[in-house]
Amino acid sequence: MVLGLVNGAFYALLSLGLAVIFGMLNVVNFSHGALFMMGAFVAWMLLNWLGIGYWWALLLSPLIVGTFGVLLERLMISRLYKLGHLYGMLLTFGLGLIIEGVFRNEFGSSGLPYSPPPEFRALTVDFGFMILPGYRAWVVLASLIVCLATWVVIEKTRLGSYLRAATERAELVQAFGINVPRMITLTYGGGVALAAFAGVLAAPIYSVNPNMGSNFIITVFAVVVIGGMGSILGSVVTGFALGMIEGFARVVYPEASATVVFVIMAVVLLTRPAGLFGRA
Amino acid sequence: MLDATTAPPLLKIDALEAWYGESHVLHGVGIEVRQGEVVTLLGRNGAGKTTTLRSIMGLVGRRTGSIAYEGREMIGLRSDLIARAGIGYCPEERGIFASLDVTENLMLPPVVRAGGLDLPTIYALFPNLKERARSPGTKLSGGEQQMLAIARILRTGARLLLLDEPTEGLAPVIVQQIGAMIREIKQRGFTVLLVEQNFRFAQTVADRHYVMEHGRVVDMVPNSDMASNVERLHEYLGV
Ligand SMILES: Nc1ncnc2c1ncn2[C@@H]1O[C@H](COP(=O)(O)OP(=O)(O)O)[C@@H](O)[C@H]1O
Ligand SMILES: [Mg+2]
Fold first, then answer.
1. Considering Cα of A225, then A228, then A230, then A235, what sign does the dihedral take?
2. Does B99 contact A174 at a Cβ distance shorter than 8 Å?
3. Across the strands, what pairs with B171?
4. Over 90: is that where the pLDDT of B182 sits?
5. Nearest-angstrom CA–CA distance, B158 and A101
6. Of A37, A81, B77, B117, which sees the most CB atoms within 10 A?
């Protein structure tokens, strides 16, 4: 259960980034897992090469990887919009493989240690019905805060209304004087930064290794499908819920824990093809 | 002071050609709109009126010729820069966003210049928009959506408004309200290029009328000559 909640925190952050990107670009960002992994590696490099610790990494790594995402979008992905979504997806898939390949070459695939910040070492949080090690409680809290902040930005701000409107009809939003191509670039950068943020959060829990993204991302795609493509609220709620369901399955019937998410996905696709929170 | 007839036109379109993919839709359109005028584009369905407005806004894939606004060439510009030059666009399908409430729809177009109407003035002109401020934009009635689509470009400081068939599909009483509103914004110094199929309505608001057929401008009738040209207009519009 506890592990489930922590996994849910990662599912929520990752599927939120995917949903934001999908809403604006209409591209399923298949390099999301690789960029999540890159977030963790950047935190590791900051620590081991520059002596910059966890808290700064939590800020810097999303900025660095987000900037990398901005470059990817500007230099490559944006060239494919005219050709249709399929090309964009293939490109991001290829980019993901390349990024993972580069890190595997440089760092091997055995995994590098990254210890949790000392503040959490002795800390546990007692909820009454369960006890969470301090760092894991922080991961859940940080994920909730960032998801909530993203939701507020999208639903309650002027910038968010531009994003929502452009998701509906980008052409008209641009004809009102808004630079939509730049907004698309920044959205991609923002979604990627969310993945990198999750990567830094994950670094102390899972060892930092080139495959950490692909382990997660398959489930995350299922979360996105269940929640409804492009739905912000859907991806957050579904992310946490599925993490918990998975964790619960691990306790009561461990053999099913790996497949339960996909069973749910199949059922949702058959009964509500647009996803639980999707607009058909 | 410049005489209205000799002053350079606010909008001057010359030899405009436009394409959707392979199909060539506009064949050398020429139009002039002077500061403070309300000018209509009349013509049957498919004549190219909407395409002319979309070409001005830079929303048509390929276009050639000249579109000068305040003497500045716009033909190669991206549509957000055209809007920022001071042109407001109200599309035929109104373009109200379902995921935005009425206020968000109203506030969506950024202010591009000083001199737009402020919110109290807009709410005075369109009281319904204030009452329905928190409703999703697409929950409004057709008439209210049209009002919203026009109101949101009055805020931005745009001086030239492109209105594409604002009366289409609306009840006569709403059409009258829209007519009154267009006269009111003309009073306030806005310039309007209005697409219409209903020339009786056009007659009540406009100074001049261009008639389009098959992607060309085939006639120009000053409003004062409308009465004596009714026969000809019937023929053009097929009514
Ligand atoms: N998106 C489009 N793709 C291809 N042809 C189009 C498109 N939109 C309009 N057309 C064609 O362009 C011509 C002019 O259309 P339009 O400008 O919408 O006319 P109007 O507004 O005067 O009714 C019509 O023949 C129409 O079929
Ligand atoms: Mg039309």
1. negative
2. no
3. none
4. yes
5. 52
6. A37
Q: Which of B23, B25, B198 gets mutated to test ligand 1 (max ligand atoms within 8 A of its CB)?
A: B25
> What predicted TM-score, i.e. pTM, was given to this entire model?
0.88
Q: What are the tens digits of pLDDT across the range B87-133?
A: 999 999 999 999 999 999 999 999 999 889 999 999 988 888 888 88
- Among the partner residues B57, B83, B104, nearest to A161 by beta-carbon distance: B104
- Strand segments, DSSP code E, in A67-146 are 124-126, 131-133
Give the Cα separation of B33 and B160 in Å (integer): 9
Cross-strand bridge partners of residue B101: B136
Domains of chain B: 9-237 (3.40.50.300)
* Domain spans, chain A: 9-97+116-210
Q: In whole angstroms, what separates CA A252 from the centre of its chain? A: 28
Contact B158, B188 (CB under 8 A): no
pLDDT digits (tens, 9 = 90+) for A106-134: 888 888 888 888 877 777 777 766 777 88
Write the residue in A167, A172, A178 that is nearest to B110 by C-beta.
A178
In chain A, how many H helices and how many E strands? 10, 2
For residues A218-252, one letter each, b for 16 or more C-beta atoms within 10 angstroms of the residue's C-beta and e for the rest, the string is: ebbbbbbbbbbbbbbbbbbbbbbbbbbbbbebbee
| Residues flanking ligand 1, CB < 6 Å | B 20, 23, 25, 43, 45-51
Burial of residue B2, with CB atoms counted within 10 A of its CB: 0-12 exposed, 13-18 middle, 19 or more buried: exposed
